[in-house]
């Protein structure tokens, strides 16, 4: 009986350790993406980051296509502690039909954990109109690719 109880506790402890390691890896990826998004937003607001002109009205969707994301993404930092790769940020211009005087961008950041399989995706809708900056943040629940 003691042997069965010990084995059950050992299995429970091992499962808890795996869960804690996975959570820590997700947090590394999240913080990498969040920092990349912040640095990217600072560069866009300062006019230092380039983006393609908005082709159509509506929210940009190039970030969902692997080739398009890779073509415009850049690494705002050389490396992130605990990450397998540096975080990436893509900037897409956005034309707001209801606010023609505003400049708007959709910023998409991808952060990595200890492996490339652990990723966190975040977005920021950045709108600048008459010197007023609006930021709308969101987490992307499912990886687009």
Percent range of helical residues: 25-40%
Number of strands: 4
Strand content: 25-35%
What spatial order of strands do you see in the largest sheet? 1-2-3-4
Protein name: Tfp pilus assembly protein PilX
Question: How would you characterize this protein structure?
Answer:
This is Tfp pilus assembly protein PilX. It comes from Paraburkholderia edwinii. It is a single chain. This protein is an alpha+beta fold and 145 residues long. 35% of the residues lie in helices and 26% in strands. Strands 1-2-3-4 form a four-stranded antiparallel β-sheet. Strand 1 (88-94) and strand 2 (103-112) form a beta hairpin. The protein starts with a helix and ends in a 5-residue tail after the last strand. The mean pLDDT is 89.
Helix-strand blueprint:
Blueprint: H1 2-45, H2 66-72, E1 88-94, E2 103-112, E3 119-129, E4 132-140
Antiparallel strand pairs: 1-2, 2-3, 3-4
